[in-house]
Amino acid sequence: MRLSILLIVLLSVMGFARPINDGNKLFAAGDYAAALEKYMKARESEPANPLLFYNIGTCQYRLGNYEEAKKELESAVRMPDKKMAAKAAYNLANTHFRVGEKAAEPSERIAAWRESVAYLKKAIDLDNNFENAKKNVEIVQRKLKEELDKQKQNQDQNQDNDQKQPPLSEKAKEALARALQLSKDGKYEEAKQILENIIAEDETAGQLNAYVQRVDDVIEIKAGRKPKAKIDASNTDNDLEVI
User: Fold this and answer.
1) Residue 112 placed within a domain
2) How many C-beta neighbours within 10 Å does residue 103 have?
3) Mean local confidence (pLDDT), 88-108
């Protein structure tokens, strides 16, 4: 009886491991669609395995299925292994970056790249030796600043053409006042969240993006992060792998 139980366990483990190993080989060969099929097969035996969330999410990223990738990697970030969770956060950051690249509206691009920065910082918090994440956070922050500068330039041009943006609504003014008070109290993360929320829901609040950037700059200074002199934009996909 003991032997039969052990045999069932071994067969279960072997049956689960083989699709993952086959998937890893296919992923390494660049056949992401076939690798995804193997990982999905493995999930039938282990639906809650966090490594499968990671591998499936990374395959979906490589296939350009960014919404599916986000769902999988958001689950993988909760892995108890901090180094593996850091890799998941890194890949999730890259996913948000690509979503931003494809966004039709500047506001959507800015929102996606802010998410990318947030997950890169999370990856660094989980693994302080994650050099690619440290490098990429500078890349995305630079792209984000360029986009915000471009948006501000467009706003200035509109003003020059007498196409003034609508005045802040009372709700937006109240949100700005709360954010400024929180900033005075040193609660910069809360201030940033209030501003981002009102920008997302109030069409008159787009002009507050400049405040968000200033608050974000303060957060970066407080955290002791400094930009490097050179930034290699080709690095954004480094270290994307499966387990």
Assistant:
1) no
2) 16
3) 93
